[in-house]
Design a protein that fits this description.
Blueprint (H helix, E strand, L loop, with lengths): L20 E3 L2 E3 L6 E5 L6 E6 L3 H20 L2 H17 L1 H12 L3 H21 L6 E3 L7 E8 L2 E5 L7 H13 L2 E5 L5 H13 L7 E4 L5 H12 L3 E7 L2 H10 L6 E5 L4 E5 L5 H13 L9 E7 L3 H13 L19 H16 L3 E4 L3 E2 L17 E2 L2 E4 L6 H4 L6 E7 L2 H8 L4 E2 L1 E5 L3 H10 L4 E4 L14 E2 L2 E2 L4 H4 L4 E8 L1
Helix pairs in contact: 1-7, 2-4, 2-5, 3-4, 3-6, 4-5, 9-10
Length: about 500
């Protein structure tokens, strides 16, 4: 029987641990009192009972955001910038607690969780400055005595639908530019990791962001989650939807938003190719694969999903990678020295198992891993007997067939499948064969190849001789069925603005 984990006792500031939604500046339970259990994926213990909100409360949050919009948008860019800088400061001040909350609900190691908090805070800092640079322009007119003036204005109420794999950063990456632009927001927090969203609402409250500007609604998977998405898409008071998640859900949200013709930005599924050419520095390439593939236990949309290795170095690279994977320490992210945590739920484990089983049936071989894992948990006081946890050992497969599931499906787990290739043209064709195009990576010492392959890959982002590509100062997004729109960088705030022209005579 599982025990309940006392998360508040792990925090220096226990007030950051909230178990209610946040609407119009008030902390609220579900209007009908229904809750759902939130579970720690590393221990199986219950963290809290969370409100399972109906669609009517999503509508209330939208109404609150609409009512707050005139006064928030009327603030100067400098005033809104000041709020974001205060949020940035508080996120840095409370990074340990925010990281602990994230670690417990998501499972990623504490050091990695704190790294995400720093990354999330960087969007506050970047957009605090970028909000001051949303320039309009004066365009010369062909007509005498006239002047064309273009200004940028906030688009309005924004529905932000965020995923569980980066519970803090995916919120800040959307919320920061929206607030900087003068928009108000309704955040639909993921059922798996709602606490990070609520902790950010606490910080917003502390710095005095007015009621209704930031709202957080939450509910479990199922009918109510579908109804929440439908309300955000169909409600005419919502002008913009920003969504990070799977391609199938993106298609559904796009269809549901058609009746109100909302502005959309979607960051959807990935199937990243990671290419190691025969002239690559293999030690660096192995380090890059580890960073890309096993960060967040492989649960990132930009992680290496198909690893293509040149035939001449295939065996050597496989050996080096396996030795590096042996050094990963799997377990509860709160324990010291842990470098890879659990998957967020049992469905994630089942998908990895399915991909491994399929690849083995088609001739692949396991070099390391290939099975689940039961940790020797040092936090036994918070784990009950017979509780299911969600670990899967970091896995390397060789001789993977091109028709394996892992070749066409995003695994979202700690599985590194190695495919063999012989020439550049062939591997680019294979890399581009996916219907999605979010990120890709490759390692080479050839400068001309760096430029040539970067341009040839059909993705929105390319990492050359690196396995990590995300920064607040550059645009993040994909092509094909990986979605549209960009987050971060100089263009990120444009997603939350409209251009208005004044024709003056």
């Amino acid at each position: 029987m599982s025990k309940t984990q006392d998360l508040g006792s792990l925090l220096q500031d226990a007030d950051l641990f909230r178990t209610q939604g946040y609407i119009n500046g008030k902390w609220v339970s579900a209007s009908d009192g229904i809750t759902f259990p939130l579970t720690n994926p590393a221990t199986g213990s219950k963290i809290a009972d969370m409100p399972h909100m109906p669609r009517t409360q999503v509508s209330e949050a939208i109404d609150a955001a609409k009512a707050a919009l005139p006064s928030w948008s009327a603030l100067t860019a400098y005033q809104r910038s000041s709020y974001l800088l205060k949020l940035h400061s508080l996120m840095e001040q409370h990074s340990q607690d925010l990281g602990t909350i994230l670690c417990v609900e998501n499972g990623k190691p504490l050091a990695e969780a704190k790294g995400e908090i720093a990354y999330g805070a960087s969007f506050m800092q970047w957009n605090a400055a970028e909000g001051l640079r949303t320039y309009g322009q004066t365009i010369p007119s062909p007509y005498p005595g006239t002047r064309n003036i273009v200004i940028k204005q906030p688009i309005g109420v924004c529905g932000l639908i965020t995923p569980w794999n980066f519970p803090n950063a995916m919120i800040t990456r959307k919320m920061a530019p929206a607030l900087a632009a003068g928009c108000t927001v309704v955040i639909k927090a993921p059922a798996e990791t709602p606490l990070s969203a609520l902790a950010m609402a606490v910080l917003c409250e502390r710095i005095g962001i007015p009621p209704g500007v930031v709202n957080v609604v939450l509910m479990d998977k199922g009918d109510r989650e579908a109804a929440a998405g439908l309300e955000l898409c169909e409600n005419p008071k919502v002008s913009k939807i920003s969504f990070t998640g799977s391609t199938p859900v993106g298609r559904l949200l796009m269809k549901q938003s058609s009746s109100t013709l909302k502005k959309l930005s979607f960051e959807l599924g990935g199937n990243a190719a990671f290419i190691i050419f025969d002239d690559a520095d293999l030690e660096l390439a192995v380090t890059g694969v580890i960073a890309s593939k096993f960060r967040a236990a492989g649960q990132t949309c930009v992680c290496a999903n198909r690893i293509f290795v040149h035939a001449d170095i295939y065996d050597k690279f496989a050996t080096l990678l396996t030795e590096k994977v042996k050094q990963l320490q799997i377990g509860n992210g709160l324990d010291q020295g842990i470098t890879i945590g659990p998957l967020v739920n049992s469905r994630g484990v089942e998908k990895v198992e399915r991909h491994v089983k399929d690849a083995l049936s088609k001739g692949a071989k396991v070099l390391i891993g290939g099975e689940g894992f039961s940790p020797n948990n040092n936090n036994n006081d918070i784990q009950g007997e017979g509780v299911e946890t969600c670990f899967y050992k970091p896995t390397v497969l060789i001789n993977v067939s091109d028709d394996s599931f892992v070749s066409s499906e995003e695994t979202f787990g700690p599985l590194a499948p190695l495919f063999k290739f012989k020439d550049e043209k062939d591997v680019i064709e294979k890399a581009n064969s996916s219907e999605v195009g979010l990120a890709a990576y490759f390692y080479t010492k050839d400068l001309s190849r760096s430029n040539r392959v970067s341009e040839a890959l059909e993705v929105g982002m390319v990492g050359v001789n690196t396995g990590v590509i995300a920064q607040a100062c550059i645009p993040f997004g994909g092509v094909k069925q990986s979605g549209f729109g960009r987050e971060g960088g100089p263009s990120g705030i444009n997603e939350f603005q409209i251009e208005k022209v004044s024709f003056l005579t």
